[in-house]
Write a structure and sequence with these properties.
The complex is a heterotrimer of chains A (225), B (270) and C (244). Chain A is built from nine helices and no strands. Chain A has 225 residues and is mainly α. Chain C is 77% helix and 0% strand. Chain C has nine helices and no strands. The two termini of chain C are 36 Å apart. Classes of the chains: A mainly alpha (225), B alpha/beta (270), C mainly alpha (244). Chains in contact: A-B, A-C. At the A-B interface, helix 6 and helix 7 of A face helix 3, strand 6, helix 4 and helix 6 of B.
Chain lengths: 225, 270, 244
């Protein structure tokens, strides 16, 4: 080819739609993250249960959720489950749930890792002064574990943000969806996808930056020693 | 010398009601049996030092007393009440009920650990207050007063609002002692509390323990500090491989005929 | 809905079994090829990141931020649809997919390799240099072999992620497992059955690969211990929290 004429104008013109798409991406990823935290807590506490069968089920669910591609899970929920059980889910809901389950599996590991990282002696000391199991957990273990959990939770969120891009396939109007139909009409896939790519990179980098600041704040002196 | 005579008299009087009884306690972790049918009685005001090689189960025994690691078999009788391990594989409510009673036992028994285990996310005074506010349910005002007093008693009056990371090992251990004492326990358990300290800080903690003994606290002390044990204990217990091999007054132990005890003592005392 | 049919209708699954297996094969092929190139690229970038030259370090840094920040989906669309217009190269489907997988995973792997290399005690380098080896020889014969062992688990995880990510290739029409499952699901009007089966096939693949990595780790650990190394640091920080 002699020279491709880059048509960046299309990008500028689509900014409003792209912005709208970005909002949807953020919404679905945040809802997904909230679900992921909820599921993660459930799976993690299940894993720590005194009852063998609850432990085994929790481990099983986490392993399965981590082994199945998000894409397959999404279609399974949106097309498979809804048809079989006649539940009507919107694409957004199905996407959020799929993200929640996948994210939940990772969050379960994050919670577990953070809690296990706290020295066993802390739990012993807490019990020794007469705290109940739950008070020992909330007053002593959890405040210390949070320091370790938060940065990793942010990592999981970034993963969900990137995973959320798939929901455009089932019709959620996120940034990619916008880029797709704009580029279809104006023959500018290069420009549009580059723009979306850059947007994601900017998002990821800024979240990483925020996480770094957050980590510094959490680490200010107190929770060590 | 005189002290142990006086205490022998006291013991004869209170023998009928031993404060703490360890009866037929057995404990295992997986396949490894750590404690085998251990029996021990501890009278009020007695200072019992447990000595023995590593792995003999001394620390585990302490943890059985306050049920942090409940004995698999056997029971603990404390102030007349019997405690046994309970766990149902299915009955959640029974388990919860059982768990809810354990804090009563534990708050009457104070424990100080080898690695201090002070809570790093709280100041010294908050560490000491935690038991008072959350276990005894006292209000913050009076809890704080009691906590400050406890810290004063262990010589940390000027470190009340410091975070543990700013404190030396010895100071952290004092916080741990104050934390346990604040709840006014009937018995204090000490698990090798000087083993992790720099040598120059050890005597400070031992002095604290001597003070408590003088004040009449009932103490069960697992230690490697032989001088301390022989000076302060009313009774010394020698454990090996999960069993109590021999017990007696410091003099009796010094002259013991048991071969394992002899071997241990000569390797330590030279 | 359809009360005359059984809850899980195996018939269509059985009829499509060969298609599904072919799709599975293509998915695995793409994942393996993708990871292979990702390892090569990742190693190069990691070494660049550790080099003495600021320029190389800078390029490597940008590279990792770029490919760790961009979603796979966007990357694939960009390569398959975008490049045609801009650069005039029409990359066919499967290669597009493999390139996308390779680029994306190389971003994470370069961080993994970098951590692994940094994790090797400086003393090892010093000992090597004291023996008279040159800097690159120390890297090649002393540091990399040890780093290699540390790096196996995270790389294995990356491979597992690549297997899962291969599902996204269906969007550009690569006839891998997900695409086949979609087509058949639409053909027979049995999405639940087909997506369940597809999910199970990925599950099996992931579990087998994970087990294989576990065994590999075990073998490598034994090897290093018997050689009389005094510390074996089994864990390297994993660079990616989540796939994609």
């Amino acid at each position: 080819m002699d020279g491709y004429i880059y048509n960046w104008n299309v990008v500028w013109q689509s900014l409003p739609e792209l912005r709208q798409g970005l909002i949807i991406t953020l919404q679905i990823s945040i809802v997904g993250m909230a679900l992921a935290i909820a599921f993660g807590l459930i799976f993690a506490t299940g894993r720590l249960s005194q009852y063998g069968y609850i432990r085994k089920i929790s481990v099983g669910v986490v392993d399965v959720s981590r082994s199945i591609p998000l894409f397959v899970l999404l279609f399974w929920i949106y097309y498979g489950l809804s048809l079989k059980f006649s539940i009507n889910l919107t694409a957004f809901q199905a996407g959020a749930i799929a993200l929640g389950i996948t994210g939940g599996a990772y969050m379960a590991e994050v919670f577990r890792g953070g809690i296990n990282a706290i020295d066993l002696g802390q739990r012993e000391a807490a019990l020794a002064i007469g705290l109940t199991q739950s008070k020992a957990f909330f007053l002593v273990i959890f405040p210390q574990a949070i320091r370790i959990i938060v940065p990793q939770a942010v990592n999981v969120y970034v993963g969900l943000l990137k995973g959320a891009t798939i929901v455009s396939v089932i019709g959620v109007a996120d940034m990619i969806y916008v880029a797709q139909y704009v580029s279809l009409n104006s023959f500018t896939p290069f420009e549009m996808y580059s723009a979306v790519g850059i947007a994601f990179i900017a998002l990821t980098v800024s979240i990483a930056g925020l996480a770094f600041l957050l980590e510094k704040r959490l680490n200010q002196g107190r929770a060590r020693g | 010398m005189a002290r142990s005579l006086i205490l022998k008299e006291l013991m004869k009087q209170t023998m009928a009601e031993a404060l703490l009884q360890i009866k037929n306690v057995t404990k295992q972790f997986g396949d490894h049996v750590v404690l085998k049918d251990v029996n021990l009685e501890i009278a009020k005001g007695e200072v019992v030092c447990i000595i023995g090689p590593s792995g003999s189960g001394k620390s585990t025994l302490l943890r059985c007393i306050n049920f942090i690691a409940p004995p698999d078999q056997g029971e603990i009788v404390f102030e007349g009440k019997t405690w046994k391990k309970f766990h149902s594989a299915f009955n959640v409510f029974a388990n919860r009920k059982y768990e809810a009673q354990l804090p009563q036992l534990r708050s009457e028994i104070g424990m100080v650990f080898q690695h201090f285990n002070v809570f790093p996310h709280m100041t010294a005074v908050e560490n000491v207050m935690l038991g008072l506010t959350k276990v005894r349910g006292k209000d913050r005002g009076s809890s704080r007063k009691i906590a400050e007093q406890a810290l004063n008693q262990v010589g940390l009056g000027d470190k009340i609002d410091q975070y543990p990371e700013k404190l030396s090992g010895g100071q952290k251990q004092r916080v741990a002692i104050a934390r346990a004492l604040a709840l006014n326990p009937k018995v204090m358990l000490f698990d090798e509390v000087t083993s992790a300290l720099d040598p120059e800080l050890v005597s400070g903690i031992l002095d604290e323990m001597r003070r408590l003994a003088r004040e009449g606290m009932t103490m069960v002390v697992v230690t490697h500090e032989m001088n301390f044990a022989f000076q302060v204990a009313n009774r010394i217990v020698f454990m090996d491989q999960g069993k109590i091999v021999t017990t007696g007054t410091p003099d009796e132990i010094r002259n013991t005929t048991d071969p394992r005890a002899r071997a241990f003592l000569s390797s330590i005392l030279g | 809905m359809d009360n005359s049919q059984p809850f899980f209708d195996f018939g269509p699954i059985w009829d499509s079994r060969w298609l599904l297996l072919e799709g599975f094969g293509i998915a695995m092929f793409s994942a393996v090829a993708g990871i292979f190139f990702a390892i090569v690229l990742g190693l190069i970038v990691a070494l660049m990141r550790l080099s003495r030259f600021k320029v190389l370090r800078g390029i490597a840094f940008v590279y990792t931020q770029l490919f760790r920040g961009v979603p796979l989906y966007v990357l694939i669309l960009w390569i398959y649809f975008g490049l045609v217009y801009a650069v005039g190269i029409d990359i066919p489907r499967i290669p597009s997919g493999i390139i996308a997988l390779a680029l994306l995973n190389s971003g994470y792997l370069s961080e993994t390799f970098r951590s692994g290399i940094l994790a090797i005690d400086k003393g090892q380098r010093e000992a090597g240099e004291a023996l008279g080896l040159r800097k690159w020889e120390v890297t090649r014969y002393i540091v990399l072999p040890q780093a290699g062992r540390i790096v196996v688990p995270p790389t294995g995880n990356q491979f597992v992620d690549a297997i899962k990510d291969s599902a996204i290739l269906s969007i550009i029409g690569v006839p891998e497992l997900m695409k086949i499952a979609q087509e058949q699901a639409n053909l027979f009007y049995r999405p639940f059955e087909f997506y369940t089966v597809a999910g199970l096939m990925y599950l099996v693949a992931v579990m087998l690969v994970s087990r294989g990595i576990f065994i590999l780790e075990g073998r490598l650990a034994r090897y290093s211990r018997s050689k009389g190394n005094d510390e074996s640091s089994e864990t390297a920080p994993s660079a990616s929290g989540v796939s994609n």
